[in-house]
TrEMBL record:
<dbReference type="Pfam" id="PF23043">
    <property type="entry name" value="SH3-B_UBE2O"/>
</dbReference>
<dbReference type="InterPro" id="IPR016135">
    <property type="entry name" value="UBQ-conjugating_enzyme/RWD"/>
</dbReference>
<feature type="region of interest" description="Disordered">
    <location>
        <begin position="41"/>
        <end position="62"/>
    </location>
</feature>
<dbReference type="Pfam" id="PF00179">
    <property type="entry name" value="UQ_con"/>
</dbReference>
<feature type="compositionally biased region" description="Low complexity">
    <location>
        <begin position="614"/>
        <end position="627"/>
    </location>
</feature>
<keyword id="KW-0808">Transferase</keyword>
<dbReference type="InterPro" id="IPR057733">
    <property type="entry name" value="UBE2O-like_SH3-B"/>
</dbReference>
<protein>
    <recommendedName>
        <fullName>UBC core domain-containing protein</fullName>
    </recommendedName>
</protein>
<feature type="domain" description="UBC core">
    <location>
        <begin position="765"/>
        <end position="929"/>
    </location>
</feature>
<dbReference type="GO" id="GO:0061631">
    <property type="term" value="F:ubiquitin conjugating enzyme activity"/>
</dbReference>
<dbReference type="Pfam" id="PF23046">
    <property type="entry name" value="tSH3-B_UBE2O"/>
</dbReference>
<feature type="region of interest" description="Disordered">
    <location>
        <begin position="605"/>
        <end position="632"/>
    </location>
</feature>
<keyword id="KW-0833">Ubl conjugation pathway</keyword>
<dbReference type="InterPro" id="IPR057735">
    <property type="entry name" value="UBE2O-like_tSH3-B"/>
</dbReference>
<dbReference type="InterPro" id="IPR000608">
    <property type="entry name" value="UBC"/>
</dbReference>
């Protein structure tokens, strides 16, 4: 039965047992790629959470299935691991640009266009005279009426023609003591707040969470400056907050009212928090202004004396009751307001009128009683805590319709398919592209998505008439100089989603912050976009100086005004291919419509903390800018070596013969010649392997050769398989007497090999290890794997793996190149995958189109548990090959998506990689898993066609035997028959949402997959026609 997901990160929830206890979901059991903000040691124990769930969550670093970690908001503190069934969903944090679904099993998704929040707020200074009266004991207001307290982290600012993002603020805090005196403390780092000690909350695990939190509230309310065990450093300040400090911190402070008294306890209420400086990460600047003396970025620290020159980027247009704009009032856009935020009214006078006792809506909204400044010696104490929110959103669905929805009725679509697109996105038809010799991809057919049939995997597209667009092969987020999409035509047609590519150079996303070029961009400006594109380590790249560029801007162009018209935010994508940009830095915010070639992305909207590789070129200069591979496959070093043995499921060791000495890695300094004559002579039709040492020219060399190759090794070949692999294959290829040897050493030189240029010298211990590896490969290769190496290059191997039956990869050829470096096995083999997908996308999450292979044992993916990575003492090539066969080419490849390895593919199939195993059986993964498997099935047929028409390197003869040799299994006939069956099934049945079974070989295909499969069928039929009866 599918597991239904209830909660997602950033959801606002309350305890069912006590609705007044509210929190934010910090991490969930489906967050395989994220790490919670808190450590398990900080969780408050709860009697409703089992000990087993707590142990598993602690061990795996993420909540156990069916559990979430919740961080509580004021008046409570701390966080806890809780069962989903113990929580009530109050709101879901959705914002512009988020991708959502109505139900987990829907194929169709939508894009959030706008979000409107209603906030339940409570005064933080009720003791000073404010109060409210509603059934919820709070004030119900619109988020647009609110503002944050002051400059805050993640605020975007404008300063000296630069756009920046605040990364840290420095503040000063003023406190009112119990005797009425007021002082600005000397050192804010010495201010403390009351909190119940964590060790106290962890006592009595059998006690329920509500009781623990109530106890914590009581303790905090009783705290005094003498309650040292209850005091912790304060990291955030707001008016009305009770704080504790030292007498010295008060004595050395600046007294605003009264003077220091040694008899007054050093505790009081915060009455003012003021920013004295901000640390800024600079994002972008106005590149084309001739009047500027320099493009040098400002210093990262802006101090108090300069803060009055800083403007906040609003992103929306408020107007107060007295006609003042939001910028004139010093307020800013309320981005991502949520429960637990500390806020003010952006127009406190207007709010007092709107939410007055005379308001006709007071029964629904409550009444705001303003605290006059005069009551608090001139300080503004009208601060509020957001207790909860309620969000409504407008969503544009893939079919083009727009609806209004409650956020709680939608679910986030977290793991978007590579081929998903939405209306307004600009795409290129991949089959029409030209890859020229200058490193460019010329996009010859470009259009705008009008609507998508997500279930059938097709899109309706409106085309540009004469596009002149090129992008860089290695930097597909940047348009080449002189790009022009031309006029949009009325011509529309439908294509499979697999035929189109939404390059980030063309497809911007709602929420992207962008820099605009002038209306008539020149060659130099396009060059600037190229140069700006990429830098390193999060630092701004060297900007091109375009102040002398010959520009003749229009009267309303960005250079003809001192206003910030050169920077904005993407708020909409039109169906004619243009973008709606909000100029949020203007006094009166304005929306304009511009063509894509005028836009350079500064920050991707999908992740404000880093540039989104799918959102465009980076003016920050960090993050990936290539669409070629979504997640770079990186090399990882093991922290420590773990001794392990390798077993089949039946219990047989792979390293069955020989003692530990055979695994030596520390050898002499002997250098083998590039061509080695003393290699094993292998008879494919015999069960004996003869290793004959050559005649050594010198006595010392002869001794090394004898030790290296041994006297004579007798091995019995064994084409058998572990029981599980045999059952899955079901081909019994070893029964064919004509079957080529699974392992062979070739006498000729390698023809084509990815690592052929990697030539170096090797010592005796390397060849001792290699002999051991060859013996294991000769004796124990599973059915469906063939390995070739060369007498002249024993450091190179080429491997052909036949896709296992019962998977989308059934009977397809997968070709890999391996290189053993001189220090092997201290380091894992280098590996390369021959991808024949024709830029349609990865055939498997582990196997990248650029040849990278992400696998823990290869050191190219992180592993969570000891023993999963490469170990120089026990790992070998056989393990790598078995991993590719049994852990990569699997029935449900989706569950290694994004985190390319998975620890369980099925409930009865254990594998050793870590990734999306927690999502197996989750309702929201059923449709994406089917779509991924469907694509893999179709691409696998293309692999067969490619292998038969272009060969498989040193294993071409093996491929010919597999598919069309008259004395072989002639699998091409079976492949053609099954392909016709898939297509016939499509005509007899309609597609329904999956029932949890992911075997695409038994389900009808979508229209997009059918089109892709029909494209491969003629070539397959032609190959089948070459087979003799």
């Amino acid at each position: 039965m599918a597991v239904r997901s209830s909660f997602y990160a950033e959801d606002t929830v309350s305890l069912k047992a006590n609705h007044s206890i509210i929190g934010i979901v910090e991490s969930t059991w489906r967050d395989v790629d994220s790490i919670g903000l808190t450590r398990p040691s900080e969780w408050i124990p709860h009697s409703g959470t089992s000990e087993d769930a707590t142990k598993r969550s602690t061990r795996e670093g993420q909540p156990a299935t069916g559990h979430v970690v919740v961080r509580f908001i004021l008046p409570d503190t701390g966080c806890a691991l809780l069962r989903e069934e113990d929580l009530l969903l109050l709101d879901r944090a959705l914002t512009m640009g988020d991708v959502v679904k109505r139900r987990p099993t829907d194929a169709e998704s939508g894009m959030v266009l706008k979000a409107f929040e209603t906030c339940l707020i409570e005064p933080l200074c009720a003791a000073a005279g404010a109060h409210s009266s509603t059934p919820q004991n709070g004030l119900l207001v619109q988020a647009e009426d609110l503002s944050f307290m002051d400059f805050e982290e993640e605020d975007r600012i404008i300063y000296n023609d630069w756009i920046g993002e605040i990364v840290e603020t420095n503040v000063e805090v003023t406190v009112r003591l119990g005797n009425g005196t007021i002082v600005r403390v000397d050192d804010v780092d010495k201010l403390e707040v009351a909190d119940c000690p964590r060790h106290k909350l962890r006592e009595h695990p059998q006690q329920d969470l509500v009781s623990k939190l109530k106890h914590s509230r009581k303790k905090r309310s009783q705290a005094t400056h003498q309650s040292s065990e209850l005091l912790i450093p304060a990291f955030q300040f707001w008016p009305g907050q009770v704080v504790f400090t030292t007498k010295a911190n008060l004595r050395l402070g600046t007294w605003k009212l009264g003077r220091y008294s040694a008899n007054e306890p050093p505790q009081g209420i915060v009455v003012d928090v003021r920013v004295t400086g901000i640390q800024v990460r600079w994002i972008a600047t106005k590149l084309f202004d001739k009047t500027r003396s320099s493009l040098e970025k400002p210093f990262p620290l802006i101090e108090r004396s300069e803060l009055d020159k800083v403007r906040l980027y609003n992103g929306r247009n408020f107007t107060s009751l007295d006609g003042r704009s939001s910028n004139e009032m010093g307020t800013r856009r309320m981005h991502d307001v949520g429960a637990g935020d500390i806020v003010r009214f952006y127009d406190v006078v207007g709010a007092a009128v709107k939410y007055s006792p005379d308001s006709p809506n007071k029964a629904e909204t409550g009444v705001f009683h303003q605290i006059p400044r005069a009551a608090m010696e001139g300080f503004d104490m009208n601060a509020f805590l957001v207790r909860s929110t309620s969000t409504k959103v407008y969503v544009q669905w893939q079919n083009g319709t727009v609806t209004e929805e409650l956020a709680t009725n939608l679910i986030p679509y977290l793991n978007v398919d590579d081929h998903d697109v939405w209306p307004g996105e600009i795409i290129s038809v991949k089959s029409e592209e030209i890859h020229n010799d200058e490193g460019l991809i010329e996009l010859k057919k470009v259009g705008v998505i009008q609507a998508v049939d997500a279930l059938e995997r097709t899109a309706r597209i409106r085309w540009f008439s004469n596009p002149l667009v090129s992008i860089f092969k290695d930097q597909t987020s940047v348009l080449f100089s002189g790009a022009d999409l031309g006029q949009i035509s009325d011509k529309e047609s439908s294509l499979p989603l697999y035929d189109v590519m939404a390059y980030s150079a063309l497809s911007k996303r709602r929420g992207d912050l962008v820099v605009l070029a002038p209306n008539s961009p020149s060659q130099a400006i396009h060059t600037a976009a190229t140069l700006i594109g990429v830098s390193h380590n999060g630092h701004l790249p060297q900007l091109p100086d375009l102040r002398d560029t010959d520009l003749t801007p229009d009267p309303q162009d960005i250079l003809s005004t001192t206003e910030v018209r050169w920077f904005g935010e993407v708020v909409d994508l039109t169906l004619n291919g243009e973008l709606v940009i909000r100029l949020g830095a203007l006094d009166e915010v304005e929306d304009i419509q511009v063509p894509i070639q005028r836009v350079m992305v500064a920050i991707g909207g999908d992740n404000p903390d880093e540039v989104d590789s799918e959102s465009g070129s980076s003016l920050l200069g960090y993050g990936s800018s290539s669409d070629a591979s979504d997640d770079s496959c990186m090399e990882y070093e093991d922290v420590e070596d773990i001794i392990e043995e390798t077993f089949y499921e039946g219990g047989e060791r792979l390293d069955v013969d020989g003692d530990e000495d055979d695994w030596m890695t520390d050898g002499s300094d002997f250098e083998a010649p590039e061509t080695i004559d003393s290699i094993p002579e292998i008879n494919a039709n015999a069960n004996q392997v003869e290793l004959q040492p050559k005649e050594a020219e010198g006595e010392e060399e002869a001794i090394i050769e004898k030790e290296l190759l041994g006297e004579r090794v007798s091995l019995t070949t064994n084409n058998g398989l572990p029981p599980k692999l045999s059952a899955e294959s079901g081909l019994n290829l070893s029964t064919y007497s004509s079957m080529p040897p699974q392992f062979d050493v070739l006498d000729d030189m390698p023809g084509s090999h990815h690592f052929i240029a990697s030539v170096t010298s090797y010592n005796a211990s390397f060849f001792r290890q290699l002999r051991r590896e060859h013996n294991v490969l000769l004796s124990s290769l599973p059915e469906g794997i063939w390995v070739r190496t060369w007498a002249a290059r024993l450091d190179l191997l080429q491997v052909l793996i036949l896709g296992p039956r019962g998977t989308p990869y059934a009977l397809a050829p997968f070709l890999f190149d391996f290189h053993l470096k001189p220090d092997y096995p201290s380091t894992p083999p280098e590996a390369y995958f021959h991808s024949w997908t024709n830029n349609i996308g990865r055939i498997n999450p582990n196997l990248y189109e650029d040849g990278n292979i992400c696998l823990s044992i290869l050191g190219t993916w992180h592993h969570k548990e000891a023993g999963e990575g490469w170990n120089k003492e026990s790992s070998n090539l056989m393990q790598v090959l078995v991993s590719l066969l049994g852990l990569v080419l699997v029935e449900q490849p989706y569950y290694s998506n994004n985190s390319p390895n998975s620890s369980k593919m099925q409930t009865n199939q254990k594998i050793d990689e870590a990734g999306f195993d927690s999502l197996i059986g989750a309702e929201e993964t059923l449709v994406p898993a089917r779509i991924y498997a469907e694509k893999a099935l179709c691409l696998s047929k293309g692999f067969v066609s490619h292998a038969m028409t272009r060969g498989c390197g040193a294993l071409t003869s093996v491929a010919n035997w597999i598919y069309r040799d008259v004395n072989g299994p002639k699998l091409i006939l079976l492949i053609v028959e099954e392909t016709r069956e898939y297509l016939d099934r499509r005509t007899k049945s309609e597609i329904n949402n999956p029932d949890g079974k992911l075997d695409v070989t038994r389900q009808p295909l979508s229209a997009g997959a059918e089109a892709l499969l029909r494209r491969y069928l003629p070539a397959l039929e032609s190959i089948a026609g070459q087979v003799s009866a």
